[in-house]
Specification:
Two copies of one chain form a homodimer. Chain A has two domains: about 5-165, Molybdenum Cofactor Biosythetic Enzyme, Chain A (3-Layer(aba) Sandwich), CATH 3.40.980; about 175-250, 2-Layer Sandwich (Alpha-Beta Plaits). The two termini of chain A are about 20 Å apart. In chain A, a hairpin with a 2-residue loop joins strand 10 (about 205-210) and strand 11 (about 215-225). Chain A has helices at about 15-20, 25-40, 50-65, 85-90, 100-110, 115-120, 155-165, 190-195, 225-240; strands spanning about 5-15, 40-50, 70, 95, 125, 130, 140-145, 145-150, 175-180, 205-210, 215-225, 245-250. Chain A is elongated, with a radius of gyration of 22 Å. Chain A has nine helices and twelve strands. Chain A is α/β, with parallel strands linked by helices. Helices cover about 35% and strands about 25% of the residues of chain A. In chain A, the strands form three sheets. The first copy, chain A, has a six-stranded mixed beta sheet with strand order 2-1-3-8-7-6, with helices on both faces. The interface between A and B is large, with 65 and 66 residues.
Amino acid sequence: MTQDRIWTAALLVIGDEILSGRTQDKNIAQVARWLNLQGIRLAEVRVVGDRTEAIVEAVQQLSARNDYLFTTGGIGPTHDDITVDAIAEALGVPVVIHPRARQMLEDYYGPRGGLNEARLRMARVPEGASLIENRLSGAPGIRLGSLFLMAGVPHIAGEMLESLSGQVEGGVPMVSRTIGCWTPESEVAELLSQTEASHPGTQIGSYPFFRDGRVGANFVVRSTDIAALAGCADELLAALGARGLEVIDAEL
Amino acid sequence: MTQDRIWTAALLVIGDEILSGRTQDKNIAQVARWLNLQGIRLAEVRVVGDRTEAIVEAVQQLSARNDYLFTTGGIGPTHDDITVDAIAEALGVPVVIHPRARQMLEDYYGPRGGLNEARLRMARVPEGASLIENRLSGAPGIRLGSLFLMAGVPHIAGEMLESLSGQVEGGVPMVSRTIGCWTPESEVAELLSQTEASHPGTQIGSYPFFRDGRVGANFVVRSTDIAALAGCADELLAALGARGLEVIDAEL
């Protein structure tokens, strides 16, 4: 089992449209997978509406106990985009116009009707912030130390993550192997538990499925220690085979 | 603006597979939409891993400030299913075998290899709980007053919601109308803000999109007051038309 430091992040998803069920969130999975690649573990997620007090509370609690905090949503030009103001309030800093963001917006909107008051809102940042550029829209994301404010539209958030790749310090990535098996998970529960216990530093998750009228489960072995992962997964694979169970989709 | 009481719920999504990005959550949107139909507002969501202390903290905080708390995930037969134990700990009650749940599992697993220790785990409930039956699996969900424990697999959680329909007291539902328009939201931001402000009890959310190479936005007007909703949406529609903007997808 590795003794390396574990880096953690929290994600705060901001938007009434998620809580109303109108919009299916896609940022949780996207941010989670990107963080894994950086060697950072997504430790917790919250979803709150477009309400200042809810954002302030979440930002204060989540940033106090994680190395990083990412937010998605609420950085656009309209009145319901209140993330920048709420986060400045949470941090006790003023909101200022970022000169480079203003320039980027002028360049982008020059041929598109020009900069108006609403568009200029997207140059507002908590004092001390730097920008997270993206290729798709004129409006940048915002970085303030360990805090990252990104767009809510998933493909724009994805571009912002892309531009942050390799820029955020992490540790040893969590790696995983998935072993699919045609068995009800309840028939091998004891085996899973024992195998996990005999390989310190590993975790086994069990995720049932129904496919082609048959019951099966994916067993996902996770660890930051590649050798421990391999030992655990190999033993589980052998044990399932020894019981005559049909293994599928094993990532070897 | 209606003065009716607003009923709120929180959702706690439990599972390492969501935080690792392996599984795209579908329960947030599903629970949100179902709650709307019951006249209950989804006020906040948290996602935590399969860790007792994280579940205990979230349950205590979320149930203290919402009328209802729903959870998804962690009620299956394997060692990583710890929701029942964590919630019993949060509430300070013991875990007991529910006789009816045991009977249901015996009936279900009778022709499927019989009840074993792992399967019997799914009859364990916090003391005082009743069951949320579902047609798809032998394992029921669990209700304990204002707390609802459901499966993580979306279609099973959906069946559990189905069987709860009309069983959970709510208030006046939030209703909405969506007005799509071929305009950058930043060109009508002031109009949105003014229209919302002149119709108390309404909210207007703005959600940009890119489609067929063109920029547009959906403006979602929400209210619990049908008359206020209609007044606000009609005025917005007329104002967009008066500017010569092309309105699409208006739900009238």
